[in-house]
Amino acid sequence: MNNLVSNIYKKDFVTAFEGDQSGNTRPRQTPGALYSKAVPTPVSDPALLAWSDELAAELGMGKPASEDAIDILAGNFITSTMYPYAACYAGHQFGHWAGQLGDGRAITLGEWIDAKGESWELQLKGAGPTAYSRRADGRAVLRSSLREYLMSEAMFYLGVPTTRALSLVTTGDQVLRDMFYDGHPEHEPGAIVLRVAPSFLRFGSFELLAARQETENLKKLTDWTIERFYPHITGENKYLQWYKEVVERTAVMIVEWLRVGFVHGVMNTDNMSILGLTIDYGPYSFVDDYDPEFTPNTTDLPGRRYAFGRQASVAKWNLSCLASAIAPLFEGTDQLVEALDGYDSTFWNKYTAMMADKLGLDSLRPEDSSLISMIEKAMIAIKPDMTIFYQLLITLPSALSDANEIIDCFKESFYKEPSAEASELLVLFVRQYLERMKTNTCSREESERKMRASNPRFVLRNYLLHEAIQDLGRGNNTLFLRLQEAIRNPYSDRFDQFFVRRPDWAGQAAGCSMLSCSS
Ligand code: AMP
Ligand code: MG
Hints:
alpha+beta, two-stranded antiparallel ribbon, 16 helices, binds adenosine monophosphate
């Protein structure tokens, strides 16, 4: 088996494109360069806190067996075939053009080839400054690193397209952070995640080249992306076909977020993967009490641009930025505009099909859209716990009709007593739902199987992460280890110790319901 130390890493990206090879990490603009060499800054006392055997097995990678291997995971050792670099990209943040951004604290070490010949970018997050760190330190704190490590793997096991995480090391160094942005910075333990994806290219990578009017580079990057990651797309119309597929993959990702109740929190175009993967885990959250207006990001509070229920439309807005960026590769913009507009029907078809599965319907019929809008209205009015609500729906008795009995069936998911109007909406939905279920052409077991596969029973709630982080700070890793197991079994009842509503104390606690970007 191959291992981190002896592996021969590929460096296709850096050989294909122009970069700044100086290794200088002074913050600056890097015109003409798609990346800048950035050697990780060593840390004082690296220790392995977590390692994913499952992901390592997929990559055909042996466990870190030597100090050298741990040193690689901490940025203290670079092998002779690695070429560490920070990617340059740009982006729109909160709806505004932000110019050049780039990996301010992410450093790609090299490309790992698995047994099937697939290539994976290995990237350290928090390994020190790069040319794109601007005024920041290039480091990451344990709190946010643990969140990225656990959540990206949790999303993978939920079946949501995502980047992965292989390891989490503590650095032994302290990092200064103003967690609440209130002028009271404090030292926190530093950490580094090694994350893995076929590529970390973003919409912003293409926006950068468009903004710089480097059309040749733009064409080259697009060709490269298609060749490597969309190899089935060839021929004359390939740019259009490719864009359509990015639109489709993005729609699939958003539908999956909505299925499991995930809110990303910072859907800037520099955080949108060109492969349709969930990327850059920051102030994210699962929805506990159902609310389309819920945003977990304190910076997003004024406009709630990135709220749960707005993610589908923001994705389209982001796709429009990508369309503008690649427009120079087209003769006119009509076809691009049409492809962008295709997002609405693609999204809607996938969304309604997903909802039909969540509800256990045999197939999606035209009249089912009213059922879907009824459940949404009822949930908005009641604000039940989303995860628990859908689990209760799976075991709903089929012979219900009394209103009180119906409401009682969902009690376990309520954060507060529902109003009379809200209760009425739920009763209306349930009655129509049970009628519809009678006409299912599949068996009840088949329908239940579908529901169990579409509705997670365990989700990695922010308050659980918060508790795990606090416990680790006191030297207790019990909850962390338990969560690491639970994320691998989100559809089973094996971890029903976590099948409870978010506790009252966590409703308003910082780090539980709301998070800042400080990480
Ligand atoms: P984000 O909102 O986390 O996607 O970050 C936006 C930009 O800020 C990215 O280019 C990051 O690389 C950069 N950034 C965030 N935190 C740091 C940090 N501690 N040091 C350097 N750059 C950072
Ligand atoms: Mg980012």
